[in-house]
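ingest -> validate -> predict -> emit
validate: passed (alphabet ok, no gaps, 276 aa)
predict: started
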Amino acid sequence: MPIRLIALDIDGTLLTPRGELTPRNRAAILEARRAGIEVILVTGRRFASARALLLELGLDVPLVSHNGALTKNVETLETLDFHPLDAGIAREIIRLGRDFGADMICCDDPHGMGTMIIEGISETNRALHRYLDRYRESVVEVDDLIEYVQQSPIQMMFSGRCDPIDSFAKDLEVAMDGRIRLFQTRYRSVDLTILDALSTTASKGVSLRALAEQRGISPAEVMAIGDNHNDLPMLQFAGFGVVMANAEDEMKQHGFIETPSNEEDGVARAIESYAL
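emit:
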């Protein structure tokens, strides 16, 4: 059965480790579009940062962001699908994050470009400081996150070294007892893990399924390409799941097709080999 829809993760998959979109990857996406294949980006990124890449590609397609919590039209900013995190649960998560000493961000403003609400970041978390500096226009600092969260935000996000964040994720999962979904994006090479806490209804797989069903496309006609743990739901939904060679070993144990790394145009090679 031919591929009619391609879902692409961004970081660690479509982009090189330096954040570049290679000419071959760009050409493969555009060729797929010319062949009548829909291409969507499904990412853990915030909407605003992922939107810039879509506009660069010239793709007028829905953007699934925040690991599936928010799907929006990149041109009109229309909200197509939203899975908010309950405000009361968000406040509980903030208390637990404080107890652990975790650096946290509340992602809010689902119907606009998005804001990142913080109440202070530790000086040692240089990676997060660099990220916040890059998107400073979207950052709002408040005295008390709990007081700020009166309406349901998009998600809560934590960032830090791999082992401490892994430990916090285990504690948070036990404490929340099935009331949230946790997704980890782990980059061992730079000792960085991003932990996202979302509504139980949110995932890349749920949002990809919704878009496919709206278009009358069956799972067997979907190819998904990813590299990290947060990609697993969409890879499992797709009839043709493809994992990058640079993915962590756990991701390669599920029987997905493996494509070369994001340094070797792995996305383009998968599209050329299996979709075109």
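Residues 42 and 64 are 5 Å apart (CA to CA).
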